[in-house]
């Protein structure tokens, strides 16, 4: 990993990355194109700040017209529709929009993120508050289905899916996640990863616990990542049965909440980002670019 100005290759857009079982890890790692530096916009570096969502002044509403300038907007709507209210911004899901996702315009490389939100509450509907890198390192808070007294923590390394040895853990929440605003925290450091609810630790992962079975690689998130909040439909007829079960069943599009509002939703009030103090980031650094696979066989 390098800061802007040190390399001339870039990975494909994150939206093109998937987790197909047929694609090898090496294929995902090295699926790169060469560009000149002038045509490759770096991933903007982290900025410590609190974003509130009582209005959409700092949210760019159309991803197709966003070209990577993070100075004017802190968030971009990747898909779906958002509705600002006095209580926060609703991310919506209906039968046609496929859900809503918003992403930070800057990338965090270690640090702490506090999400203040109310989740969805319907079978088959999932709320997520995560970090996601361009090579599919990922750290998750997820709230599947209609169990509003639990939250799920998870992490991924380079998008490697191992559903027989899942890294997900379910934790209890003191009051209903859909009718109470809680603070869900990801504290991501080089050697530890901690999840907290309302300031109390509910799970801690140590990097040394993630060593691969052959002892050659720590499968631990290490790459600069966007922050993303979403609502998405897991309970569809087209979903895998395991996904449907995980999400609490199929979505009921005749649910009274859906019929009266025209959508399902979650509500986001704020996101606070506290960036790590990195010694290799100087005052003139503006962004991150990928330079290939480095020491330890990681990006």
Give a description of the structure.
The chain has 299 residues and is mostly beta strands. The protein has one domain (43-289): Jelly Rolls. Helix content is 6%, strand content 38%. It has 3 helices and 21 strands. The protein has helices at residues 25-29, 241-246, 256-261, and strands at 2-3, 9-11, 32-34, 43-44, 49-52, 59-60, 75-79, 82-85, 88-93, 100-104, 111-118, 125-133, 138-144, 150-156, 169-172, 182-188, 192-197, 200-206, 225-233, 264-275, 287-289. Strands 5, 8, 9, 11, 16, 17, 18 and 20 form an 8-stranded antiparallel sheet that branches. The chain has an 8-stranded mixed sheet with strand order 6-7-10-19-12-13-14-15, with no helix packed on it. The longest helix is centred in the last third of the chain and has 6 residues, at 241-246. Residues 2-40 have low confidence and may be disordered.
Pick out the low-confidence regions: 2-40
Order of helices and strands: EEHEEEEEEEEEEEEEEEEEHHEE
CATH architecture type: Sandwich
Radius of gyration: 19 Å
Whole-number tally of structural domains: 1
Largest sheet: 8 strands, antiparallel
**CATH class placement:** Mainly Beta
Identify the overall geometry.
globular
Distance between the termini: 6 Å
CATH topology (fold) name: Jelly Rolls
- Can you count the helices? 3
